[in-house]
Design a protein that fits this description.
8-stranded mixed sheet, alpha/beta, Rossmann fold, 436 residues, binds S-adenosylmethionine
Amino acid sequence: MSQEYIIADSRQLQKEYSEKNLHQASIIITSPPYFDVKAYGEVKSQIGYKQAYQEYLSDTSNVLQQCYGISSDDATLWLVVDTIQRNRVLFPIPFDIQKTLTEYAVSGDSDQQTWILRDVIIWNRCKNLPWSSKGHFKHEFEYILFFSKNENYKYYLDRIRNIDYSSEWWLSYPERYNPNGRPPSNVWDITIPIRGWGNGYQQHLCPFPFPLIERILTLSTDEGDYVLDPFAGSGSVMAIADQMGRNSIGFDICEDYKTKYESQVLIGAQTYWQNRLIEIELERERAEHFRNTNIKLRKVKSGIKLAKIIKQALNDNSATYIIVDGNELDISLLVLQSQIYGQITDEQYIDDLKKLESEYYVKINILHKTKGETAIIELGHDNLFAYTSHRIYRTIGAFSISQVLNDTFKPSYVFSNIHVNIQNPDDFLNKNVNNL
Ligand SMILES: C[S@@+](CC[C@H](N)C(=O)[O-])C[C@H]1O[C@@H](n2cnc3c(N)ncnc32)[C@H](O)[C@@H]1O
């Protein structure tokens, strides 16, 4: 992957891009200086340093507008900014920048457009200084403003969904849970790197935490994309982008940071990513396991519900019901009677069937057979698992097909070749899904 850490004033971004013939950016992840709060190194021309607030806003917004000009149509901009206080008055920098940006847009002129604000994320930094003062609570979060140019941008939400097993409801009500996990909220808890707390790699006044960058890149980029940080600082965005197979370009006015980026941050990012790869594989296994289990539970539960409806309609207590697994979201419900009396039409419960299919997001095929018919031979010689409607996630036990077909067999069971047997839901909290 290519990486270019350029020492330059990002107010000259477009000029640098055309002179150096740099590749269009697919994403911009950055945090500008927070007005005059911190002096980054000795460089006096840095944005924020001894500037009036309006000048600072105008310079920062100008850089972001230049990013608009050198990025692809489907690009996104992720801006991490904090508010500041002056004489006990709060300056809402993130929203002042956003407002200043809107001044670049000339209505109706497609060449004069600017970033569109999509969402605002609260980044809970988890570790904070314990101070507060009159009128100002203990400060715990920063804003992340998320912009795009139009409706067409990369946003792979499934990649960052949460697999949360902490409540047992998902076992009894699988239809209420997305098999891919919960959607992430707009509050992100990500611990800020603090120098002197074991992080020897990011020697900068306010480096991004690596997990924050990873999350945004995972959500909004693909391998091979071009990542830009116009206020690169420690170069953390570039270093994580590189580990994740993305090309990166960074600008900073302070030369020292580039040296540290090369000698420390790249190594830190490498170590971080090696550990993450192991965790990511475990997370992938857990997500896959959750998805498979959720789908199995949907199939068993919807099959049991439909069996109950058909049982009432047929008024035949000796009928046996077998849920037969199909492709991804398909099942067949085998309704086996000793003898089929007259012509059975499923029309009387077609509405219930449609309702179940849409509620459980499965496709159900009903097959009426006599117990002597060969249809069940398709099930092979494997055992069938018995379920009752009050606990769908733990089978009552396994039974042979001849046992299942025995008329005296407990008629309240519904059988299936789908196996779900979760003894202790807490096991799902255990990282090692192989134990389940
Ligand atoms: C909030 S810090 C960015 C920290 C960065 N996100 C990280 O992970 O390390 C802002 C950076 O902007 C840089 N900067 C200030 N004025 C600049 C300018 N005119 N052009 C380029 N960089 C500038 C500062 O040197 C500082 O490193």
